Amino acid sequence: MAQVARKSTKWILFIILLIVAAVIIFPILVVLMNSFKANLFISSTGAFKLPDSQSFVGLANYFNGADRINFFSAFGYSLWITIASVACILLLTSMLAWYITRVKGKVTSAIYYLLVFSMIVPFQMVMFTMSKFANMIHLDNPVGIIVLYVGFGCGMSTFMFSGFIKSIPLALEEAAMIDGATPVRTFFSVVLPMLKSTAITIAILETMWVWNDYLMPYLVIGTEYRTIPVAIQYLRGGYGSVDMGAMMAMLVLAMIPVIVFFLTCQKYIIKGVLAGAVKG
């Protein structure tokens, strides 16, 4: 009876997960399907129909959308901002996490709890003040916005890195220092290589956030340096008209880099999350 109950539980869990997967994948398939259809055939009812001989337009939506929003320019800005922001977040927060974990004191404790508190503050609460301040100190450009992303991304990253660093035996670092390694070399030669799984997990999460972010680029760097999410909005015409075919096509192109990156690194996600949850 117990074995039958376990099999029944597994089947029920499998069916539930299958339904959840279908709910998540279905909107993506709808976007992909409509990216090959003429705008006339994408409506409240036609959006869920497969392309046929009348509605199928091939890659016309992709070429049209890419030309209208200057896709490759937007892609370049998004790629630069994402890579630079994630790289800075990983380097700076891993060093900060190591410092506040190993150097115990009121100051480091205050920094840690302030960073944890920043994780629960909604972006909408500070976005207008932040955009005004960024304009005042000339951060309203593709380089300056990286500073803002580091500031908003350091809370979660430092929290996850700190959780893993607590599980690293202090004896390893002491042995390196006895051999003559400086604190900087100890971090880069001993600590950083051990943070690989956590770093990849954080890189995936931060990449998905920065790449898909719309509000911060729109408020800070505006229309002069359009990232992909901002550029796609310009497919909306006057009086509420939207070129749905071109928009669907551009959404597909915007999703591809993140999906490829996620599938490449997904095996590290659970390992990194579990490692970051270890308590010292």
Instruction: Specify the overall morphology.
Output: globular
Please give the count of helices: 13
- How far do the termini sit from each other? 41 Å
CATH superfamily of the largest domain: MetI-like
Tell me the fraction of residues in β-strands, as a range: under 5%
Work out the radius of gyration: 23 Å
Q: How many extended strands? A: 0
Which blocks of ≥5 consecutive residues have pLDDT under 50? 276-280
Fraction of residues in H or I helices: over 70%
Decide which structural class fits the backbone: mainly alpha
CATH architecture group name of the largest domain: Orthogonal Bundle
CATH class of the largest domain: Mainly Alpha
Largest sheet: none
Looking at the structure, the CATH topology of the largest domain is MetI-like fold
- Arithmetic mean of pLDDT: 84
Task: Provide a compact summary of the structure.
This protein has helices at residues 2-34, 60-69, 71-102, 106-118, 123-136, 144-165, 170-178, 183-194, 196-212, 215-220, 228-232, 244-265, 267-276.
Description:
It is built from 13 helices and no strands. It is mostly helical and 280 residues long. It has two domains: 2-34; 60-276, Orthogonal Bundle (MetI-like fold).
Write the layout of secondary structure elements.
Blueprint: H1 2-34, H2 60-69, H3 71-102, H4 106-118, H5 123-136, H6 144-165, H7 170-178, H8 183-194, H9 196-212, H10 215-220, H11 228-232, H12 244-265, H13 267-276
